[in-house]
């Protein structure tokens, strides 16, 4: 069936791809073992640091969304570890479900799905954890299902104010390159980002920035 006009994707993600990027990926494939590919790869990895606002390494790998969550969790935790996860929507809920599947013990701070995570509630819970049994605080930066944004900088300050050693883990799949995000400045330890959401790219490749 003929459709008049030009197709333009208008959903939370993936996002529409600009023409200049479509033209770039329309070129012939180059040798993935050759020097040209190595040069392009290094330039891409170095450029990603400016998006994450970090001087550390960025990891790229092909995966589904749940694959990125799983990789982030299993490489920074052991079975039975306690997590503090804030439910701000469908994807925050699914992340906690993934945590349970791989043997972790998520404690959920329930939200009403109308707003982002509240830093004061996170701080209060961490202050109550005198034995420091909570290993990580997991928050979705921009909840795609609801459009709510969590204040990552405030959450970082809340963790510090509580004097708690928990890792800060952020799903910024639809946040990075769309919202303010500062990995090094905000003291992050692991971020998941899919390049089809906020970075105007086509393939489903996941980027992670992790630091122990």
From TrEMBL:
The keyword Membrane does not apply. Residues 25-185 form the Aminotransferase class V domain. PANTHER family: ALANINE--GLYOXYLATE AMINOTRANSFERASE (PTHR21152:SF40), AMINOTRANSFERASE CLASS V (PTHR21152). This is Soluble hydrogenase 42 kDa subunit. Its cofactor is pyridoxal 5'-phosphate. GO terms for molecular function: alanine-glyoxylate transaminase activity; L-serine-pyruvate transaminase activity; oxidoreductase activity. One of its GO terms (biological process) is glycine biosynthetic process, by transamination of glyoxylate. It is an enzyme of class 1 (oxidoreductase). InterPro entries: Aminotrans_V_dom, PyrdxlP-dep_Trfase, PyrdxlP-dep_Trfase_major. It holds the Pfam family Aminotran_5. It comes from Maliponia aquimaris. Its EC number is 1.12.-.-. The keyword ATP-binding does not apply. Keywords: Oxidoreductase, Pyridoxal phosphate.
């Amino acid at each position: 069936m003929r459709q008049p006009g030009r197709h333009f994707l208008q959903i939370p993600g993936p996002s529409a791809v600009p023409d200049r990027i479509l033209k770039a990926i329309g070129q012939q494939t180059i040798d993935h073992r050759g020097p040209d590919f190595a040069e392009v790869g290094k330039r891409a990895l170095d450029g990603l640091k400016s998006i994450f606002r970090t001087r550390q390494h960025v990891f790229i790998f092909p995966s589904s969304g749940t694959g990125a969550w799983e990789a982030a969790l299993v490489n920074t935790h052991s079975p039975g570890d306690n997590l503090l996860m804030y439910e701000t929507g469908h994807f925050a809920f699914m992340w906690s479900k993934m945590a349970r599947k791989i043997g972790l013990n998520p404690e959920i701070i329930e939200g009403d799905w109308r707003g982002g995570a509240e830093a004061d509630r996170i701080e209060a819970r961490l202050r109550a954890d005198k034995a420091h049994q909570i290993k990580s605080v997991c928050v979705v930066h921009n909840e795609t299902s609801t459009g709510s944004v969590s204040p990552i900088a405030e959450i970082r300050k809340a963790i510090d104010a509580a004097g708690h050693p928990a890792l800060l883990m952020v799903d910024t799949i639809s946040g990075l390159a769309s919202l303010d995000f500062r990995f090094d400045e905000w003291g992050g330890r692991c971020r998941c980002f899919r390049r089809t959401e906020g970075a105007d790219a086509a393939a489903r490749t996941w980027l992670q920035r992790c630091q122990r």
